[in-house]
User: Fold this.
Amino acid sequence: MSIKVLIADVDGTLLTQSKVLTAGTRDAVARLRAAGIEFAVTSGRPPRGMAKLVAPLNLTAPMAAFNGGMFIKPDLVTVLGQRTLAPAVAERAVAHLLRKGLDVWVYRGAEWYLRRPDAFRVARERSNVGFEPTVVDDLYDVLDEVIKIVGVSEDRALVASCEAELRAELGEHASADRSNPHYLDVTHPEANKGMVVRQAARLFRVHFDEIATIGDMPNDIPMLSIAGLPIAMGNASPEVKRAARHVTTSNEEEGFAHAVDSFILGQPPVAQTALGLPPRARACLVQLDGVVTQVARTHAAAWKEVFDEYLKERSQMTNEPFIPFDAVRDYAAHLDNAALLQGVRSFLASRDIELPSHVVRALVHRQDEVLSELLRDERPEIYEGSVRYVLAARKAGLRTAVVSSSKHCADTLRSAGIADLFDAYIDGVVTSDDELLDVLAPDAYLAAARAIGVEPQDAAVFDDAVEGVEAGRADHFAYVVGVDRGGRADELRRHGADVVVPDLAALMGPG
Assistant:
């Protein structure tokens, strides 16, 4: 699906640190409209606090103020709907924040109430929203039809801890999210930016997959989590970046305009190149096992030889029947994509066998020897379509790298006769402290990108395992292709694949 709507946060996203709306941001919004893409804004600010955006951005869509607590037309007069806190919930929130030592602001209708006009951040907020607060002696007197309560403190750690505490205390009765390291916003449970996306989907009659969102703070995570194309600002925290599909530059580096041009206008979710990739992709990072080669069969054959040898000896000593290792069922159940020692122990436990660690290690080392012999003597099977795809990618000028969970990556490539298809390869981690591993390192794709000199946002990841797809998504690669070899398409999509294909050749279309 193509993107039809972009919803943007305001502070830290559309505005610079000094609250400037740059010409680059204004021009980017104009380019969106010229491409037929709707644009809307959402903020923790009150409606009047967004007044200075209306004319420069030519806003026509309803604006979501107070994190979605109020929807208002750009005339700033016509309220389309609002969600207020129950008085009892508002009282509990205020009591908790005051007890913890935070200053408290209360927003009700068009008014902003507080107790201390000279407190931390009041002058800054006054400048941002463009109107004066109302000073009251007792905040409990103004808690009817409250839209938002804000706890404010110079102590960032205190604000973060209060966020967790209020979420636990108020539960389903309120949303509590930081809109700034110093601000904790408490709103109606349906007044969050995730609900803003749902409202936008209804308003514009589009699917979530057709909505892009962009933000920088924890209160933006609900909208990043639900949108089809979530984008985090470069100035966002790691927590926010993890929730995004892409990370742009910071708000001091025209991050909004960069996101519009790179990820929305320049990166249609349905790729248009002959290789089925976004135009920006300059490299292909491919999982060896399960995508390019069928080396799992070789691994299973090596384990069968090792386990059958051991089980026969054991049968002779115990007079128990010999039941051979099943290279399909036993391998899939216990050893495929598992840490080596863990996998061996799992298989042995399925036969009611428990061995000392040194014996288990001996079996692992014996399998390693057998696998090396098999790779010397037998050519691993390859997926012809995937090899054809990698060849096409290289012909198109893309760099290529392969990753593997096995330390036998180089041997496998040579034995299969495809070593020259890749500019670099990344072996899996083989040892860690006293535990043998044979699983894909979490940063294997990042290492592969570094090895061939490309940034993650310029490379595509191809993997048949959930773990690899998740790594590609988490590290913000340009495109993540899930390869479904066994009926796991839905699972691969859920964990971050942009597209799922049965084989890489399917990305190139007929012929």
